[in-house]
Design brief:
Layout: H1 63-66, E1 72-79, H2 85-100, E2 103-108, H3 109-116, H4 123-138, H5 181-192, E3 213-218, H6 235-247, E4 254-261, H7 265-280, H8 300-316, E5 330-335, E6 340-344, H9 349-358, E7 366-372, H10 377-381, H11 392-408, E8 411-412, E9 415-416, E10 420-423, H12 427-432, E11 440-442, H13 461-466, H14 469-474, E12 515-517, E13 523-529, E14 533-535, H15 552-558, H16 560-568, H17 581-597, E15 602-606, H18 608-619, E16 635-641, E17 648-653
Parallel strand pairs: 1-3, 1-4, 2-3, 4-5, 7-15, 10-14, 10-15
Antiparallel strand pairs: 5-6, 7-16, 8-9, 11-13, 12-13, 16-17
Amino acid sequence: RRRRPKKLAMPDPPALPLDVGPMASDARSTSPGAQHAYVQSQSHLLKATSDNPLPTAVPPPIAAVAGLLGVRHVLCLIGLPERGKPFIAQRLSKYLSFFHGAEVKLFDVNEVMDRAGGPPGSDHNAMFMFEEIKAFMNATSSAADRNMTVPRAGSGRSAPASSSSPPSPEVRPVVVREGSAEVQLAESLATHGEEELLVHPSDRRRKNVDSGKVAILFANDTFACFKEKWSGTSKERRRWASETLAKDRALGAKLIFIEVIVDRADILEANLRARERAKNGPTASRESAGPAMYEDELPDECLREFEDRARRFQRIYVSMQEDGSEDDLSYIKLINYGDKVVTNRMHGYLRMRIAQFLSVIHPTPHVIYLSRHGQSEYNVLGKLGGNPPLSPAGQEYARRLAQWVPRHIFYQHGVLTKCRLWTSSLQRTILTATHIPHPIVPASSFDSPDGLPSPPAKRSAPLEAAATPLAASRVGISSPPRRGSHETDAATPSGGTPSHRFRSRQRSRQLPPRYLQGDEGVLNEPVWEQMSPRVYRNLDEIFAGEYEGMTYEEIQHSFPSEAKMRATDKIGFRYPRGESYLDILARLDPLVHELESYHEPLVIVSHQAVLRLLYCYLTGRTRAQAPKLSMPLHTVIRITYDGWTPPTEERFYLGPECSQTDGQTHL
């Protein structure tokens, strides 16, 4: 007989919205907002009672809400034109806000200088920008300092006589009420006065308890803002910015320069193509073979203009010096997007997280496929969590997915492409992906080498042959479906005969894992295993703790207060002895670093709660939206994003039909 957890009596939680650490809709700000020192489902624990007349006003921080606790940093992106600085600013701000709860604001130097209205390089423009940075850094945007908004000892307040007796009339505890941080401070000041508070409102110690603030400076038009003091284009300008921030001790912000250095022509041309594609849309037909990022022809005039502008800029731009003259500055040199990363005076948690994240991102297109596992036996019963196998409908989805993947993922824009596969460690995701073929493919069969693709100006004969049906059949996979054929996006039902069969080539036991064996047993060229399955526990479903294996109706009946609390604060509520959505964020963080580093399409077969968060991160939504999203069963979601254009998505329903209202919907 299942042992039910003891039902606890507790007051109903307040029905107030609390959005924990989202990315604001404004592209210039990723600030979590004013009320995110703790999750809403903890608010009933912070009220004064007869047993606890002087309660903790703010609970200790957790990583996803205050992972960069109290830090104040200004990141200044510098470098030659068309190196992807706006892309880096956007990705970095999204990452710090989404996974660490930091308040991040983007400052486009061009846009701020236009509003300043002064002549280029003037002190007026520089101080205008500085005041904007200070306004962001000094804004009271969190309730995290409430524990310091109490009277000092000897100011007329004394401790209660006993823990069981109510406070005496002379004792005036600070009762936490719902409202903004400014309202809380005003109430305390009205009761006690500034001089009676434990920490004065202007004390800098109040700035070190929130989730941290990061201002990111970049330029959309490097040429136009070259003379501005915050552009960082010379040693003198960088020194001025560093000294200006250091002099304002009350601000307490530290400066980091991030220099983006790209000297590979293929990366520069890829950036230019992406920029033109963002401005004009793709021009080439999708019928043409070649990687997606090279389907657009770059006009010669555009290349000549860029090369001319870059040469003129390079003559006057001064890179970060490694001769000792700038060794006292904190900086990162990002060379060819992770090929090499040089750091100087980068001490501390935030700085190293930034350096680590910058070492894996790149501006070339990402293609991510998200799929829930097939319907499980617990889905049929409406139960939460567990490790059940697939239902008959889920097994059918696994077969259809295996037929759909090679036709639609192995080939990108008609070209054979390396692909990857991730699943969780729970059997329902492993069983969903178990039929996906894993052919062993010679490296020469792919359109591009490892790493960033090279421009396909002159394609060699082997590369041309790799896209033909004959070459594909030699490595155990068929050619992509012909356009205009009668094949549909849905996979062939079980028992049918698909028009293309995909057979994984069996490895010889004596064959090393990354080389192809020749006719006489001689090792020839390196090989790639398509969709080589990788299992990550980080992708496991949210753990419902004591409610594992229960239906949502059982939870509502047995634990109505808990059910109501979770409905009010779904992202922050932690199941008893289980997890919350914020706990999932912590375990997804390292996987996102791995994901960002990939150049190959990636298929992720996981679970509803995990995919909700990944979907929000990849599509630019706030994490507060995640618990409300629908991640339907038996559907593949294709997400494409790069450094220039907004993310796009396509959905492919493979079937079979099944109920979408299962217990996992409430996770």
